[in-house]
Amino acid sequence: MPTATQVQIGDVVVLTQDAEKRLSQNDSMWNEDLRPCTLAEHSWPGSKFASLWIGMCICLPTYSLASGMIALGMNWWESVLTILVGSLIVMGAILLVSHAGTRYGIPYPVFARLWFGTRGAHLPALARAVIAAGWFGINSWFGGQALDAILTRTLPFWNGLGPHLAIAFTIFWAINVAIAMRGPQAIGRLAQIAAPTLAVGALALLVWASTRVGGFGPMLAAPAKIQGVTFWAAFFPSVIGVIAFWATLALNIPDYTRYAKTQRGQMLGQVLSMPLTMALFSFVGIAVTSVTVQLYGTALWNPVELIVKFPPFVVIVAGIVIILSSVTINVGANVMAPARAFENLWPRYITFAMGAVFTGLLSLLMQPWYVLATFQNYIFTWLGTYGALLGPFDGIAIADYWLVRRRRLDLAQLYTPDGIYSYARGVNPRAVAALVIGWGVALIGLRIPSLYFLWAGGWLFGLLGGLFAYWFLMRNERSAIDEAAFASITRVESVPAEQPASG
User: CA-based angle 330:34:256, to the nearest 5?
Assistant: First the structure.
């Protein structure tokens, strides 16, 4: 009878001490950041996930995403509804992937070994890293613009410097990289400061907008400029854009839920925070942007373009708030995944800090100044394209964990070079085939004009294509262990008194 290598305690599965000691000797698959969590490390209550999501949602990209819909011609309630629908849809995918992180305590690059193989996992990990680096650059550009606005108002000579915006961006980018190098623990401390600060700033902006136009009635009275077919042509890709906004977290959410105490706690913490926060904060951006149309004759969807119209003191205060927000979202959402992905390439030598530096350098290649040049670049080119890129990965992850393996994993084998999850020399060719099929479904829309909706909804159709293709190709997979095999390697223990079974 096989010796148990893992222990199930309540909602979580951890390695036995003997298995952990043996596997830790192989530094090509294991280091302190990639190893599964111990029972003591499953310590995050639901409130921790709620505060994390609130801190990440209350950010400048959310404001710009929502307010840009006014620029497309939607009215305020159509824009809020678009944000809410997209947030609820992507939350479904997030919860499905979250379960694996909580149950087995594994980070995203290790979770990807399950579907792509011990070596093939570099593909989904690096794909996620590239997108995260793009967001790192976008938030750094927002922060750099805010820093430039502050310096322009406070230092008379600053505006005379030719590349002053580029200099401010470089300074802010370097600050972000330096903070990110301090590691994941910096995330919680930053979020505790930034989320309430930005919330207060957003409310102040809302009050200013309301008083300038005589109350909420006039502020929200602007009618929609698009109706009928034109509205739906904007609504569908906008919903997909909202989904794509968090499609990155739908992949690497195990990096966070691996620390959860219970499944119920992390689920409630996420469901009760992200969609509502997105809708409420979006309302602020939408309402304020509606006012800018009345005051300035154009929709100022980039908040930095709005704050520079205020007196110097307000520019300084608002700029500091924007800077704080940009740092928080960068460290919280845009460093963890790529830094882990770079670590996973060479665990023996690459540290989290080195991965954070690589992320910063990669972000410069993503040209955030071009992405944020227009709202069309932002939602259709950036969000739409990377949504189509990541959708099949989301579908493959969900299909593997829920349909192929039915939540039964051999945790030790994820850290074994020639184990059951090695497939063909460390790569699962059926996962690669499913990925190509998922991408192909979306790309058909670019080749056939009548099917353009497949590209416009690239994340959704890519996810479905990848999910069904992977399930079909892996339906007889030998590495999928049955209940008897799972029981033979898993010792079940009662939940300690300090570790409640649910809640």
Answer: 45
Cα–Cα distance for residue pair 88/101, rounded to 1 Å = 20
- Determine the Cα–Cα distance for residues 491 and 468; give it in Å rounded to an integer: 33
The strand pairing partners of 427, in sequence order, are 424
Classify 32 as helix, strand or coil.
coil
Stronger pLDDT, 295 or 332, i.e. the higher one: 295
> How crowded is residue 238: how many other Cβ atoms within 10 Å of its Cβ?
27
Q: Give residue limits of the domains in the chain.
A: 45-390
**Strand 490-493 to 12-15 pairing:** unpaired
Architecture label for domain 45-390? Orthogonal Bundle (1.10)
**Which region holds residue 107: left if phi is over 0, alpha if psi is between -120 and 50, else beta?**
beta
6-9/490-493 β-pairing: parallel
Task: Report the candidate in 328, 91, 331 with the shortest Cα–Cα distance to residue 195.
Answer: 328
CA-based nearest residue to 125, from 412, 393, 368: 393
Output the pTM of the full model: 0.85
Whether residue 193 has pLDDT greater than 70: no
Q: What is the pLDDT of residues 29-66, one digit of tens each?
A: 888 888 999 999 999 999 999 988 887 787 777 877 77
CA atoms within 13 A on the CB side of 13: 21
Q: 77-86, 327-336, 417-426 — which is least confidently predicted?
A: 327-336
CB within 8 Å of 444: residues ≥ 6 apart: 451, 454, 455
Residues 215-235 have a mean pLDDT of 79
Maximum CA extent, the chain: 78
pLDDT at residue 481 is higher than 70: yes
Query: Is 415:108 a contact under the CB 8 Å cutoff?
Result: no
Phi, psi of 16, deg, nearest 5: -70, 160
Residue 331: partners with Cβ closer than 8 Å, 6 or more residues away:
176, 179, 180, 186, 187, 190
Enumerate the H helices of 29-104 as residue ranges: 46-57, 60-72, 76-104
- The crossing angle, in degrees rounded to 10, of helices 60-72 and 228-245 is 170
Q: What is the pLDDT of residue 190?
A: 62
Q: What is the pLDDT of residue 192?
A: 62
Residue tagged 């259709």 (tokens): 380
